[in-house]
Structures are given as structure tokens and as C-alpha cells.
Amino acid sequence: MASKKYVPPVKRNLPAEGPVKIQSMAHRKRTPLWKIFLYVVLLAVILFVIFWVLGLNQVGPFMKITPTPTSIVSLTPRPTITHTHTPTPTIRPSATPTATPTFTPTATEKPMPFVVKGSPQALSNDLLHPELDCEALIIGGEVWDLRDKGVTGLTVHLGGTLGQYEVDFYTLTGSAEIYGESGYEFILENLRLASEDTLWIQLEDPSGLLLSSRNYLKTSASCQENLILVNFKQVR
Fold first, then answer.
1. Which tens digits make up the pLDDT trace of 137-190?
2. Is 210 a member of any domain?
3. Model-level pTM?
4. Which domain holds residue 212?
5. What is the greatest pairwise CA distance in the chain?
6. How far apart are CA 6 and CA 21, in angstroms?
7. Is 228 found in the same domain as 128?
């Protein structure tokens, strides 16, 4: 083996004052504040450029918010029906005098061509029908024209009520010549009853046209008044 050469250690020359002392941080030289501010501004500018280039300028304090369009549903409110009270106009009386209603007379009955001549007569049935029972009610007479000649072929209508019975009979003039040429007659057996204005007699032509008004009769329960004579006379 080869032998290593011995190298004596080197001694450092220390100052006479003693060992070297390390300066404290308080005595180090400080960086001016304007340089720090300059560094911050440069850093901010660099970051802003980077964000702008990369399209990140939408983020941060400079971000522009573009609203996303959304479907807007508009609700149309239903019409509300408001019931308003319309006051009824008040009619104030005017100073103009109102017309006094005039009396309009009711239409009078049209004059008929035939009327009852005189007043009906109540006699005993023994005068013309002695063979009949006293219980019968007899109504008869004649019809004359303007020249007092007998008119035959007309209809005589006897109607109304007698007691509890309803009366509705027809006969022709000239069918009972016992009264004359134009005589007519109604014999109501067992109907000798007293009544007033419930039984009536009327003259008609063959077609039913009225020739006289209704003439109401008065009947009696007496055997001396059970034959009633009613004569008609033409007046127009």
C-alpha cells in the first residue's frame, strides 16, 4: 500500500479583537416602500392581463352578469264582475197640471130589431089549456113584424134556471097557432115554481143571429099565474 502524505491543518488568522460577530437583523438594509408598492401594481397588472387573455375576465369584480332567458308565464286575471248599484231615477212632480181622466161610457147594447111588446102577463092555464094539470108552467105568445103581421119560422130560446133545474129549450114561431098565426109555446110540466130574473127568453133567426135581447121573467107558484104570455114586436 502507498503511504498518504500528511497535510498539517491550516490555522485561520483571527482578528485581534476576538471572534467575528454576526450582525443583527435590525442593522440590515431595508427595502424602500415605493418598491413594494411598485411590485404589487405590476403583479396586479400581470394577473389582469392573464385573466383577460384566458377569458376569465367574466370572473371577479369586473364580471358581467348576463341573465339567462327564462320562460315567463303571464297569468291573465279573470275579469271581476263588480255589481254596481244604479240608483233609480226619482221623478219629481212637475208644475205642469196633469190631465183629468175623462169618463168613457161603456158601449151600450146594440138596438135589436125585436122587443117584448108591453110586459109579460101571468094568467091561469085554464084560459088556453084547461086539460093540463095546475102543476105545469106554460110560456107562450106571438111575434109581429113592423106591419103587425105574424112572423113565422123564427126561433124562440128559453134558458136560465128554475129552482134547481137548468132550462135550455127551443121552439119555432108558428108552431102553436092557439096563440095566433105566429104563436109559440113552452110547456114545463111539474115546474110551477116561484122565481125572479133567473129564467129568460130571447128571439133568434134560423141561423142563430140574435133578434132581441134577453128578457128575464118572473114566475109564480100560484095556479092562477102559471101561464105567462110574452109577445115580440119588430121595431126596426
1. 999 999 999 999 999 999 999 999 999 999 999 999 999 999 999 999 999 999
2. yes
3. 0.55
4. 114-234
5. 212
6. 33
7. yes
